[in-house]
């Protein structure tokens, strides 16, 4: 069963308008992985994801992550 991975971002108040247009949780990403192994690779090894995370250093105030499998409680 796929795993849905949701990430919400809140930028620091000191982040310039050029860096982000709105405050609060203004950006979200939703990804779907076919297995726990795929999700683990994405989080820990995927070069594009790791570079993206590094690019956010210093401008993020808050991040929320929610992973779930549809139909499971």
UniProtKB/TrEMBL annotation:
Stress-response A/B barrel domain segment(s): 1-68
Record note on quaternary structure: Homodimer.
PROSITE patterns per the UniProt record, alphabetical: S_R_A_B_BARREL
Protein's UniProt name: Stress-response A/B barrel domain-containing protein
Annotated Pfam families: Dabb (PF07876)
InterPro entries named among the record's database cross-references: Dabb, Dimeric_a/b-barrel, HS1/DABB1-like
């Amino acid at each position: 069963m796929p795993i849905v991975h949701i990430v919400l971002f809140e930028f620091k108040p000191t982040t310039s308008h050029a860096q982000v247009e709105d405050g609060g949780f203004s950006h979200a990403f939703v990804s779907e992985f076919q297995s726990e192994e795929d999700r683990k690779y994405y989080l820990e090894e995927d070069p594009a994801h790791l570079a993206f995370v590094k690019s956010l250093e210093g401008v993020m105030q808050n991040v929320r992550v929610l992973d779930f499998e549809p139909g499971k409680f």
